[in-house]
Amino acid sequence: MGQQISFDRKTVGPGNAVVLAVSGEIDLLTSDEFDAQLKSVLTPPNETVVLDLSGVRFLSSAGLSVLLASAEAAKATDIAFRLVTTERVILRPLEITGLNSAFTVFGSVDEALASAN
Length: 117
Prior knowledge:
It is a single chain. The chain has 117 residues and is α/β, with parallel strands linked by helices. The protein has one domain (5-115): STAS domain (Transcription Regulator spoIIAA, 2-Layer Sandwich), CATH 3.30.750.24. Helices cover 38% and strands 32% of the residues. It contains 4 helices and 5 strands. The chain has helices at 31-41, 61-76, 88-97, 109-115, and strands spanning 5-12, 17-26, 48-59, 80-84, 104-106. The radius of gyration is 13 Å and the shape is globular. The termini are far apart.
């Protein structure tokens, strides 16, 4: 029985915003695929990337590493990178590691997209 992760990618409205929704578990077995998906959207002409983690049930240190590298890549290319989650499985590891200050976190995709305008 392998770990499962799935992605749903949508381009939204004007301003080249992309929403990448992730479901499943982000751990050592799925972090490479997670990283590849993020790299594919964190490129121009995308101006805003909203990463919806509402469907994530587990986030390991490997997943945190990918998130941090993605935030740094977005900053280097002037892409607004926003996280969407209200889930403790995401928020708690960010708080414990002090990485919560590296991200802009929203409660919904709509809120994250509205902040881009």
